[in-house]
From TrEMBL:
Keyword Magnesium: no
InterPro entries: NAD(P)-bd_dom_sf (IPR036291), Sc_DH/Rdtase_CS (IPR020904), SDR_fam (IPR002347)
GO-annotated molecular function: oxidoreductase activity
Pfam families hit by this protein: adh_short (PF00106)
Name under which the protein is recorded: Uncharacterized protein
Xref: Gene3D superfamilies: NAD(P)-binding Rossmann-like Domain (3.40.50.720)
UniProt keyword list: NADP, Oxidoreductase
Signal peptide stretch: none
Similarity comment: Belongs to the short-chain dehydrogenases/reductases (SDR) family.
Residue ranges of the TM segments: none
Native source organism of the sequence: Clonostachys solani
Amino acid sequence: MTFFKSKVVLITGSGGGLGRYLAGAYLEAGAQVVLCDIHEEKLKAAEEGLSGKGPVFAQKVDVADEESVKGLFKATVNKFGRIDVVVNNAAIFDALAPVGKTDKVLWDRVISVNLTGNFVVSKEAVNQFLAQEPQGGNIVNIGSIAGTKGYFAGITYTASKHALRGMTMNIASYYGKKGIRCNLVQPGGMDTELYKELEGNMEAEGLILLGGNCPALKDGSIMVPLDKMSSLIMFLSSDSASSLNGQILNADNGMVSSA
Ligand SMILES: NC(=O)c1ccc[n+]([C@@H]2O[C@H](COP(=O)([O-])OP(=O)(O)OC[C@H]3O[C@@H](n4cnc5c(N)ncnc54)[C@H](O)[C@@H]3O)[C@@H](O)[C@H]2O)c1
């Protein structure tokens, strides 16, 4: 598979489960890949693990910090000359906290990473896509089925992922005619670290709501393997999907539509 030959692909949160796997898949398809993550050790491990597969550039970034993101884009263009694909993948979870139990500090942090981070990265991405020759590029946002329903997460993660739907359609509307596409993938479940460090601290009320509304979570049928998720994201960012813009795809084995 070489259909990303020489393309430059930047993936946020690529020290983590999906981001790291996806980076490896793009490298195998011939891309040059930019890894970035706030977590230095995870980033280093991803860089070491992936550099044998192809050209990799890694830089620590906090997607919530505009200066940090600007530095990343500048360094990427210095290194590779352009950017073709940006995957907005970095996110944090909210431990299923409902509005009445959500500290504003938690709200601010989750919104700053999951929503403002997505905005800041998208802003740098479209301006780079417009400035380069040939012009254009692709953004794939990673949302969640929590962006479609009300019970898959707490108030903050739910609000942040719902907002990505609007952001995706807005970018597609404004920039589609300028050769820029923006689509949103909403995963069901994936076997990663996202929830693990919060496992013992999840809000009990949220867990009951989740279990009651979504048996697929308990029997595991909502889980999507990382290779399947990566193929979908790569397809959306490829020329084969050139007619898809502003699309919102639930990658959940059909669970939300049948619930
Ligand atoms: N795992 C699931 O079941 C699931 C379900 C639905 C949606 N998602 C979404 O999939 C995407 C990938 O998540 P994952 O499951 O691989 O989780 P993960 O925790 O393994 O990876 C997320 C990565 O983002 C990084 N990150 C966090 N804050 C950051 C910041 N401020 N700046 C830069 N990097 C930062 C983390 O260090 C981590 O490496 C996320 O957008 C998540 O919301 C995951």
